[in-house]
Amino acid sequence: MATMSGNFERTLLSTNASTNTNDMALTIFSGMVLESFNTAAVFYDRSNSFMSVKQLTGAASAQWPIIGKDPVGTYHVPGTFINEQASQGTNVKRIQMFYKTITADEYLVNGLDVPFTDLNIAHFDVLAPFATKLGRNLAKTLDAKMAILATKASLAAQQVTSGDVYSAGFNVNRAVASSNGSISTVYPASPEGAYKFRADLAALCQKFDEESVPDGSRYLFITPAIKTALRFETSWSSTGSTVTASPVMPSAYNNESSSDASDVATRVIGNLEGFKIVVTNNMPSADLSGASLTGQNAITAYSGAAGTGGKYQGVFTGGTTNKKPVAIALCSADTGSPAIGMVQASGLQTHMEDDQRRNTKFMKAQIMCGMDFLCPWSAGSITISES
Question: What is the mean pLDDT of residues 328-334?
Answer without folding.
Answer: 81
